[in-house]
Design a protein that fits this description.
224 residues, single chain, 8-stranded antiparallel barrel
Length: 224
């Protein structure tokens, strides 16, 4: 189980977000780790939508693939997000989508560039993956000396990449998602310590996948 960690999520409104921030400042020693920054993600899936199906079915051992980059950073990574029960990890490598890569490229251009870049990569294995969903959000990062991390995602927006006519524009044609998402990540070695901290939060955890939520907002799946 090397590199696996617990990943616990909470869905917040304005009131519970305020409560969560108070818990963070009063009950933990976490500090702001990085400047707030926008995260851009393209989720990939195969023709059978196995990632969607496995997640909806609650398959214990599953994975999904995504491409991710940050505003102000030209480095683009392809990630394999692996899930084993309540534990998760990610495997990442650099992806070259061309020096003129832009988020405003059409879905068809994105698909062609991604497939050309991945064609000879081991990351594809024996299956064919294509861009399905674009996601953009603002992330806040906090971390303490024990190594647990808390992130807050807000201003979440989704874009349909399955339609060839759609442009993954970061300024228009995006679907807004109002709730905020708090995620707490920690190594199994500090589980007892984290259970004590989380009990003071007095909130209920919830399964939450931006991939599935985005697909649901687009009317492609039913997800609660």
């Amino acid at each position: 189980m090397n590199n696996y960690r617990y990943e616990i999520k909470f869905i917040l409104n304005e009131v519970s977000y305020s409560d969560a921030m108070q818990w963070l400042y009063v009950c933990t020693n976490a500090i702001n780790k990085y400047p707030d920054r926008y995260v851009n993600t393209i989720y990939l899936d195969n023709s059978s939508y196995d990632s969607v199906r496995d997640n909806l079915s609650g398959v214990s051992d599953r994975f999904k693939r995504r491409i991710r980059w940050y505003d102000g950073n030209s480095e683009i990574k392809i990630e394999k997000k692996v899930r084993h029960g309540r534990l998760g990890k990610k495997e990442a490598s650099i992806l070259d989508l061309g020096g003129d890569f832009s988020s405003a490229l059409s879905a068809l251009d994105l698909r062609n560039r991604i497939n050309d870049s991945l064609y000879n990569k081991e990351a594809l294995f024996s299956d064919y993956y294509t861009p399905v969903l674009g996601v953009r959000y603002l992330r806040k990062y906090f971390e303490d000396q024990a190594g647990f991390r808390v992130t807050f995602d807000e201003k979440i927006q989704f874009s349909d990449l399955y339609d060839n006519s759609t442009s993954f524009s970061l300024s228009n044609e995006l679907i807004d998602y109002e709730p905020k998402v708090m995620e707490i990540k920690f190594n199994p070695s500090v589980k007892d310590y984290m259970n004590t901290l989380i009990s003071k939060l007095n909130m209920t955890t919830k399964r939450h996948s931006k991939y599935l939520v985005g697909m649901a907002c687009l009317g492609n799946v039913v997800y609660f």
